[in-house]
Amino acid sequence: MTGFLHGCVTAMITPFKENGVDLTSLGEMIDYQIGSGVEALCILGTTGEPATMSEEERSETLSYAIKRAAGRAKIVAGTGSNSTAQAVENSRRAETLGADGVLVVTPYYNKCTQAGLLAYYEEICAAVKIPVVAYHVPQRTGVTMHPETVEALAQIPNFAGIKEASGDMAFALDILRRVRGKCDVYSGEDLLNLPILCAGGAGVFSVLSNVVPKAVISLCNAVFERKLYAANSMADKLFPLAKALFSEVNPIPVKEAMNLLGFRAGVPRGPLTPLEEEHRELLMREMIKFGLEVKA
User: Fold this and answer.
1) What count of other Cβ atoms lies within 10 Å of the Cβ of residue 132?
2) Which fold has domain 7-227?
3) Which of 74, 120, 163, 255 does the annotation list as catalytic?
4) I need a labelling partner for 129 at 20 to 30 A (CA). Which of 177, 229, 242, 279 fits?
């Protein structure tokens, strides 16, 4: 299927406090994103640190986000697992809670075959009626999904596309040419948002848009409106900030960036650690250069 999402989808962080999720702070961030014009929010994706959260925390967080958004933006829930049964259960729960769609990462660690990947997504798609978006991020999962596999999945009625985050533009182009008109491709790599959009991507799942949602929306819209000079200018402006946001593994820098903007983002949960001072200074410099007001 095509057309499930279009434009900027923010990969939301999960703000933590000592004894759980800071839902009040999450609500403020959701309002900030929706007020900026973001079409959809991804809850419990990689940036949301679901691997460090209990099942109760994940359900509570997703339920709260759906109620807070109140139909003002689509909610896409991260539901992938290295167990097909668990991914199916997670996806069914998300659908029951009211999520508009699910983002399902390839099964990590087990290193299944392409046949295993097909079976994994087929079973998840069969278990829910809402759109399913695959998430391809081999540097985290150790699993590469071949373009031919994505092409086969595009035949499933509620398979809505793929968040492509391999970092390999040639790979992304191969997927795009195979599935064009059958399902959508979304950039999952902020530094490659521009070329993937220009090649026909339907939108972006963005970490960067936590911090500067209006700018990422402007980039998307400039491409969609075929204003390539404006799109290149915005991409040039965003590039140094995006680099700073990946100076350490995501979501370490973006959580600190949100703290610097005045939100109560807290710190990542272990084994992730707070941003090192050298990278914090770099991040602050780039935020200030971009024109953001930093509360150091």
Assistant:
1) 28
2) TIM Barrel (3.20.20)
3) 163
4) 177
